[in-house]
Amino acid sequence: MDQDEVRVLATAEFTRRMRAGKPRGGFQIDDWQLSEPYEAQVRGLRGTERLLVVDFVPRGETRARGHCKLSVAVDPDTGVADMLR
After folding, report:
1. How large is the average pLDDT for residues 30-49?
2. Which segments within the chain are labelled E, that is strand?
3. Residue 21 — φ and ψ, nearest 5°?
4. Per-residue pLDDT, 3
């Protein structure tokens, strides 16, 4: 799985989570800057795994509203993406 595929999967999961429960038009992906995917050890229900992580950092007004960096991990073997806490 290449980095572009990881970014697409991470962005889809991030967008799905951020739009949940918000009025139409209340979330804009352009308000967030994406990092390049990087490998990290992530601890979860299945123990510690090496996953690819993409950070979403708020820009401008979004940062002023109190949002902080959010991250999504992608399993490069299965393509499963999940937001990290």
Report:
1. 91
2. 32-34, 38-44, 47-58, 70-74, 81-83
3. 75, 10
4. 93
